[in-house]
Specification:
Mean pLDDT: 89
Shape: elongated
Distance between the termini: 57 Å
Order of helices and strands: HHHH
Structural class: mainly alpha
Number of strands: 0
Largest sheet: none
Length: 96
């Protein structure tokens, strides 16, 4: 009931679905881009990046007036930057 009360303020159904979805799609996009373009990045770095990306998206949604259309871009950039930073800042194990 709480969600229904909140959702009625979002406008039409398609806008509501996109607003809610944009809170999560950016992190997923960052994860897929990392998997396709940067094979050196491993799961722990991506997971940490996704946590940072979701934190950035929710902070942006709560504390700023940035349009919800930008949440996907913000999430993707933060996920990729965090995961790449973790990957290239930590030493890689020696190969056997």
């Amino acid at each position: 009931m709480v969600f229904a009360g909140w959702a009625k303020r979002l406008g039409s159904l398609i806008v509501a679905v996109n607003k809610v979805g944009s809170l999560f799609y950016g992190s997923l996009l960052g994860c897929f881009v990392l998997a396709l373009v940067f094979p050196r990045v491993k799961g722990t770095a991506v997971f940490s990046g996704m946590l940072a990306g979701e934190s950035a998206i929710f902070a942006t949604a709560y504390f700023t007036d940035v349009s919800w259309l930008w949440y996907n871009v913000i999430g993707c950039v933060v996920v990729m930057a965090t995961a790449l930073t973790i990957t290239y800042a930590t030493p890689q194990p020696a190969e056997a």
